[in-house]
UniProtKB/TrEMBL annotation:
<feature type="domain" description="TonB-dependent receptor plug">
    <location>
        <begin position="50"/>
        <end position="145"/>
    </location>
</feature>
<keyword id="KW-0798">TonB box</keyword>
<dbReference type="InterPro" id="IPR012910">
    <property type="entry name" value="Plug_dom"/>
</dbReference>
<dbReference type="InterPro" id="IPR039426">
    <property type="entry name" value="TonB-dep_rcpt-like"/>
</dbReference>
<dbReference type="InterPro" id="IPR037066">
    <property type="entry name" value="Plug_dom_sf"/>
</dbReference>
<dbReference type="Pfam" id="PF07715">
    <property type="entry name" value="Plug"/>
</dbReference>
<protein>
    <submittedName>
        <fullName>TonB-dependent receptor</fullName>
    </submittedName>
</protein>
<keyword id="KW-0675">Receptor</keyword>
<keyword id="KW-0406">Ion transport</keyword>
<dbReference type="GO" id="GO:0006811">
    <property type="term" value="P:monoatomic ion transport"/>
</dbReference>
<keyword id="KW-0813">Transport</keyword>
Length: 145
């Protein structure tokens, strides 16, 4: 190959790359403005933007919750939708045991202290019997890790 054909090949490749970058840039500029959806978290007893909360938070709400409620899911559905949350039970819907990042209680005693708390309408549900409530009236779920 001649040195001039090498230069022509490099120039044509450069021009094609520039043309592709230019068309991608104009297509992006012509599109709609992208806006982040604001997620409001109330887990610390006040409404906060999710970006201002100093801990790791996972939220479920809106369309996802309505689909899950209409399907008749129980509280164990969150185990598949929230990272590092595992919910298990040996008794069907009752007595669920919660584990967040591997921390939980595998004791079946009803009086055992639970390291993972469940707060429902600002009421702490410490007893495992209370944690197996159906989710038909939940509007939003916030998991703080």
């Amino acid at each position: 190959m001649k040195p001039t054909s090498n230069i022509i090949h490099k120039l044509s490749t450069s021009f094609m790359a520039l043309a592709t970058a230019f068309t991608a840039n104009t297509a992006l500029a012509a599109g709609d403005d992208f806006v982040l959806e604001e997620i409001v978290v109330t887990a610390q007893k006040r409404s906060q933007n999710l970006q201002d909360v100093p801990s790791s938070v996972a939220t479920l709400g809106g369309e996802k919750m309505s689909v899950l409620k209409s399907g008749g899911a129980d509280i164990k559905f969150m185990s598949a939708r929230v990272p590092s949350l595992y919910i298990e039970t040996s008794f069907g819907r009752t007595f669920p045991r919660f584990y967040i990042r591997g921390l939980g209680n595998s004791d079946f005693d009803l009086n055992a202290s639970q390291p993972v708390s469940l707060i429902y309408d600002e009421v702490v549900l410490e007893n495992p019997i209370l944690k197996g409530a159906p989710i038909f009236d939940l509007d939003r779920v916030e998991v703080l890790r």
